Amino acid sequence: MSLNVLAVASEIYPLIKTGGLADVAGALPAALKPHGVETTTLLPGYRQVMQKLGAAEPVAEFGDLFGGRARLLAGEHAGLDLLVIDAPHLYDRAGGPYSGPDGTDWPDNAYRFAALGRVAAEVARGAAGHPIPQVVHMHDWQAGLAAAYLTYAPGPRPKMVATIHNIAFQGWFPPTLRGALGLPDHAMDMDGVEYYGGVGFLKSALYFADRITTVSPTYASEILEPDGGIGLDGLLSARAADVSGVLNGVDTEVWNPATDPRLPARYSAADLSGRRDTRRALAERFGLDPHGTRLIFGVVSRLSSQKGLDLLAEAVPTILELGADLALIGSGEGWLEERFSALSQRHPGRVGCFIGYDEDLAHLMQAGADAILVPSRFEPCGLTQLCALRYGAVPVVARVGGLADTVIDANPAALGPGVATGVQFSPVCQSALETALRRTAALWADKAAWARIQQNGMAADVSWNASAGAYAALYRELVGNI
């Protein structure tokens, strides 16, 4: 018997994307179908979403959704079954999902994402005319208040799963908003949504959900500790029996070097010759040596201290001393954008950067760079290293979170039997990163060892197959194994 799940997410690829959450929300529904799980995803009707959605049918109306009328639209896009909240007063604006063109958070984010939670609760009670879901799956803080609205409403509720994609983003808002958000007086309690004196969206999800997942087993352990839990470790430790880690995957149809239309040449593990052309195209795009005589380190990342990009900036002299080049795609903290732009200007032909994000360039980077750097201070799962494995770029990663779970370090114990897939380093500091860069350069000089590591990586299963099965099993456990 099929199982109906309502996924609640603030972004979904290919309609709207700022990070890995969108990739997960976009890929998981299709991966769940072979396991008998039908997923409908609810998301806000941002301007970008409404422009791409196409034909959609109104299925519900809301007379006053935090300051204005709204409709709920049912539609389909890229094989995804969608419910979209058409609320122009909340979502029809230039800028990103969470912030305006100047990069600062929208001042009404509490209402914008409370609306997502409230509509999720209404859909879970049958407002959309769809089958009432047996499970509501909430992704990150933006969906978190759905748990409170469902819990405080009378009558039965579906089972709830909360997934933490990055616990650093928690959705805290002042306590004065409690009434305006439609929460009862008793919600402002430690056994409710109260979190450090305010309204905690993520705290709501973690307190009321039946099960809590995060996106790798190692990260599931890290968030139980003060350093990893960032204020929520006490709650999570108390609920440790309900916390589990399920590794993310990537959409192996979108990320497939043998068929990728974004590449100038296609290739496979059986025939890597096309990779020479993609490498040359990448070098030319970033103004690097096109002749293949220098190792190319690549980066596709949000530019932030969390991602360890400040450590990488300090390590650029080591990259140059090794006779290697650096190509970087990313945006984020202004001082890091300025730092890498300055490094590119100071070292033309050796350091190239693109400030921003471009999906075509991201694919070219994975297909053309020799190694992909992911020096994160913490990383719930990471998708960049999974794409790197798939495309034959050797991942060089910090030994944290999902990076530790998905990359096998090229140490003697792994090189001997030939199972290594990349390079890990720990602790996350400049000297350890520089040691990893030197190790990578030494491996690259050994062409036979490098080719074996590439082949191992490309043979790794980075799909959603196993993880989708784990989610399906979790859902069925909650609802009684139907």
From TrEMBL:
Keywords: Glycogen biosynthesis, Glycosyltransferase, Transferase. Residues 4-237 form the Starch synthase catalytic domain. GO terms for biological process: glycogen biosynthetic process. One of its GO terms (cellular component) is cytosol. Synthesizes alpha-1,4-glucan chains using ADP-glucose. Belongs to the glycosyltransferase 1 family. Bacterial/plant glycogen synthase subfamily. This is Glycogen synthase. The lineage of its organism: Bacteria, Pseudomonadati, Pseudomonadota, Alphaproteobacteria, Hyphomicrobiales.
